[in-house]
Amino acid sequence: MIAPAGGVDGIAAALFANGLVLRGGFNFTLGDAPPPGQSGAPAKSMLLVGQVGAASWPHFLRWREKQSRTIANPLDTWSREVIGAVAETFSARAVSPSDKPYLPFQQWAMRAEGLKPSPLGILMHPHYGLWHAYRGALLFEQELPLQALETPLHLCDACVEKPCLKSCPVDAYSAQGFAYQSCLAHVRGANGGPCRSGGCLDRNACPYGTAYRYPPEVQAFHMAAFAGL
């Protein structure tokens, strides 16, 4: 967890004003190969930025109303603008999960928050379930005061029924992994309406974090982006 001290509080407040939250962080160690920070020198610490539930959605919609409808990947663009402005204010470098070459956001998240993947590949959070995401990270060229992480309970270990593996009509998720092409074809096809309008049936079947479940319009937005619709 992040220690509530100094500039970290200010960063959290600046992000919260846009519906985003700090999701943990860590200081890089000698065994790491950290990406460059703001000046190009190796970063010494990293803070993850993400969303919890749909808290950021109204902020994104207000921004989108003022933008061209032809913007590709509008949510990524909005996230970059918000996190980039915070980074500039606090002398950090902002990076995004869509940056190329890709940065190890999944590994960073597991290290920063102690989370493990669910059977769907999404990291399972002990409070938010599957209803959270990472929108970017802030890289600093100085170490930050961060508290030692307590390993959270992995809820999937206690879930015997695994409804997340039983609800998809084309069995997109299994022990063999994610059948991307089968999922894509179904979502785009004549029988994919429930997935297009209400989101992934497997994800929605998870019993954890339901208070943070994305509303149907948010899930439809993400499904349209996934399917290229």
Residue runs with pLDDT of under 50 for 5 or more positions:
1-6
Using only C-alpha atoms, the radius of gyration works out to 18 Å
Helix/strand order: HEEHHEHEEEHEEHHHH
Largest sheet data: 4 strands, antiparallel
Number of separate helices = 9
Overall pLDDT: 92
Shape: globular
Q: Compute the separation of the termini in Å.
A: 38 Å
Written account of the structure:
This is 4Fe-4S dicluster domain-containing protein. The chain is α+β, with helices and mostly antiparallel strands and 229 residues long. It has two domains: 7-154, no CATH class; 159-227, no CATH class. Helix content is 34%, strand content 15%. It is built from nine helices and eight strands. It has helices spanning 7-16, 57-64, 74-89, 105-113, 155-158, 180-188, 193-198, 201-205, 216-227, and strands at 21-27, 45-52, 93-95, 116-117, 123-124, 132-140, 173-174, 177-178. The protein has a four-stranded antiparallel β-sheet with strand order 1-2-6-3, sandwiched between helices. Strands 4-5 form a two-stranded antiparallel sheet. Strands 7-8 form a two-stranded antiparallel ribbon. The model is unreliable at 1-6 (pLDDT under 50).
Topology:
Layout: H1 7-16, E1 21-27, E2 45-52, H2 57-64, H3 74-89, E3 93-95, H4 105-113, E4 116-117, E5 123-124, E6 132-140, H5 155-158, E7 173-174, E8 177-178, H6 180-188, H7 193-198, H8 201-205, H9 216-227
Antiparallel strand pairs: 1-2, 2-6, 3-6, 4-5, 7-8
Protein name: 4Fe-4S dicluster domain-containing protein
